[in-house]
Specification:
single chain; 20 helices; 63% helix; binds protoporphyrin IX containing FE
């Protein structure tokens, strides 16, 4: 036997001795087991059975798969953010830069591919199969909200109209959560009632959201930046990465998404209602939501013009209506 093989066997022997296991039995198991294949390793067969259209309309699988792809990117983002938020890894300046840059790459990929939605489906087909999806909506993406909790203080997620007023009163986490922008956003325009989409979402996820919102309140990215030394806080690469994250998650992706919603749902006689039933025109544009994870990294002017210039350019003025 080659010396390197003997060395590896010695290491295995030591490991199995320590755990009180029999190395010979383990080697027999290894001898009998199959080689791993690509398709088993990435669970390909399962993955490819997860697309279950509700209609026979041919473009519906595109809609399903692109949502699934997006959720995987959200999962990748949480894979970077959660270890920080749970303090499993130490949030040094270098660690923050490394992880935030990864998340930025994921969101960049999502923003740059959103035209798969905007241009890649027949509008008439989309408008038909969406009727079979009511009241489901991407609004109900829990990972999207967890990315927010892991990134910023709850104070920054309060609906902009009451943000200053609520925050002035030194509110507890429960009050902040009740005033979060999306709770208020998903309302039926005429009655002000919560949409069924929101009711379903709350019923399923409120316990999880409250748990994470509380647990990460003092360990989200914003808080972790505040814990750095004064010198590290001013690090240009870190500031650039955090600002890029704010832009990617709170301006660029929402604008690509809003532009797509406008393309499909607007410009027809009765302005199609969203499947989630929201007043989406007044809700989705980033300049109305003014979600900013790291307000301390933006000037007053940048904050007041959040999402504005870009939206007018990209939507041909739709948001100005
Ligand atoms: C043709 C494509 C799409 C259209 C027309 C569309 C439309 C909408 C509309 C109208 C809303 C407002 C809530 C409602 O009433 O339903 C919404 C919310 C949302 N959608 Fe989409 N959407 C599209 C694709 C996507 C994709 C691919 C994702 C990826 C997961 C997504 C994720 C979201 C999220 C996270 C929200 C909540 C945004 C917020 O609260 O600010 N959407 N969408």
């Amino acid at each position: 036997m080659k010396p390197e093989v003997v060395l590896q066997l010695d290491k295995l022997q030591a490991k199995y001795d320590q755990d009180g296991q029999d190395l010979a039995s383990m080697l027999e198991g290894l001898h009998l087991s199959d080689y791993i294949s690509y398709w088993d390793y990435i669970q390909l067969d399962t993955l490819l059975t997860l697309q279950k259209p509700r209609t026979k309309i041919v473009d519906e699988p595109i809609f399903i798969m692109y949502h699934q792809i997006t959720e995987l990117y959200f999962k990748l983002s949480l894979h970077e953010l959660e270890p920080l938020a749970t303090r499993k890894v130490k949030a040094t300046k270098e660690e923050l830069v490394r992880r935030v840059k990864r998340v930025n790459r994921y969101f960049e990929a999502l923003s740059n591919s959103f035209h798969i939605m905007a241009d890649g489906m027949e509008r008439s087909q989309f408008l038909a199969f969406r009727m079979a999806l009511i009241p489901a909506s991407g609004f109900q993406s829990a990972q999207y909200r967890l990315i927010e909790f892991a990134s910023t203080a709850l104070e920054n997620l309060v609906k902009v109209e009451v943000r200053a007023q609520v925050n002035e009163q030194n509110p507890d986490a429960q009050t902040l959560y009740e005033n979060i922008y999306w709770m208020q956003g998903a309302t039926v325009e005429e009655s002000g009632e919560k949409t069924l989409t929101l009711k379903q979402f709350e019923a399923k996820y409120t316990p999880l959201f409250m748990e994470k919102a509380l647990a990460w309140r003092h360990s989200n990215l914003s808080m972790l930046w505040h814990e750095l030394s004064a010198e590290d806080q001013q690090d240009k690469v870190l500031i650039e990465a955090l600002r890029a994250l704010d832009y990617q998650v709170n301006v660029d992706w929402p604008l690509q998404h809003y532009r797509t919603a406008a393309q499909y749902l607007a410009r027809q006689p009765d302005d199609a209602a969203a499947t989630g039933g929201t007043n989406w025109r007044n809700y989705l544009p980033p300049r109305f939501q003014k979600r900013i994870f790291f307000p301390f990294l933006w000037s007053e002017q940048e904050q007041s013009e959040w999402g504005k210039k870009w939206v007018t350019q990209q939507t041909g003025g739709l948001s100005e209506e």
